[in-house]
Amino acid sequence: MLELDASVIGSWIGGLFWPFIRISTFFMVAPIVGAQLVPVRIRILLSLLVTMAVAPHIPAVPVVDLLSVENVAIAIQQMLIGLGMGYALQFLLQMFVMAGQLIAMKMGLGFASMVDPTSGVSVPVVSQFHLLMVTLLFLVVNGHLVMIDVLAASFNAIPVSSSGLTSAAYWHLAGMLSWMMAGALLIALPAITALLIVNSTLGVITRAAPQLNIFSVGFPFMVLLGLGIIWVSMTSYLPHFERYSAEVLEMMALLPRY
To answer: By CB distance 3.0 to 4.6 Å, which of 82, 130, 224, 243 could disulfide with 100?
Structure first.
């Protein structure tokens, strides 16, 4: 006869509840799945499906009282791990958004903004174009499957417990902000350099011919030239995406090991 006591029930519930917290928190902030376009019910359903697929293959979870303080501590740690890994992946897409903002400011389209449906904030149209492009690339190379695989592997790198991430892991996650800004600058650097040369040329023309209304001529010229530069620089986006996506996935895999 099967006897059920509090410890057995606690192990069953904990084996699904704590992984569900980490996975659901990750999907709430991860790119594509965590966008505002995706309903919350879809995120929860996807989290449940992934949890049911991952739970039988993770290390044994600790058996604690469900109403104890230790249970709350474990839940908070799983939430922080999911948030950290989700934001680490979010930095990849925001890198291209920031690169688009830099290019838009230099070409005079910084005021032309639209509401980003994924985040609900206003971004320049150039940034929106970069975001759509990098999202499609992410889906084409099966990045959504890789991020789920890395998330499942994190349960072996850092099992469910009350220890969680170390302070070094949080500092590493904060340091990824500088990595994101440096990557955005490298992506936008060719376009920024070309537009800077054009601006310098227009300045020389203004000094040589003060009677020429350079503002009425230079603005449409800068916009057309900026669009041409973006079109020419499209060939370098795929190498940048492959490099930075590999780096961010490696950072996600190493984050629990710090």
So the answer is: 130
- Strands (E) in the chain, as ranges, are 113-115, 122-124
Lowest-confidence pick of 2-11, 114-123, 210-219: 2-11
In sequence order, the β-bridge partners of residue 133 are none
State pTM to two decimals. 0.76
Q: What are the φ and ψ backbone dihedral angles of 165, each rounded to 5 degrees? A: -75, 150
Over the stretch 31-70, which tens digit does the pLDDT of each residue have?
887 777 778 888 888 888 888 888 778 777 766 666 667 7
Contacts of 25 (CB under 8 A, 6+ apart): 78, 79, 81, 82, 83, 86
* Sequence spans of domains, the chain: 6-257
d(CA 95, CA 139) in angstroms, rounded, equals: 17
Q: How far is CA 118 from the centre of its chain?
A: 12
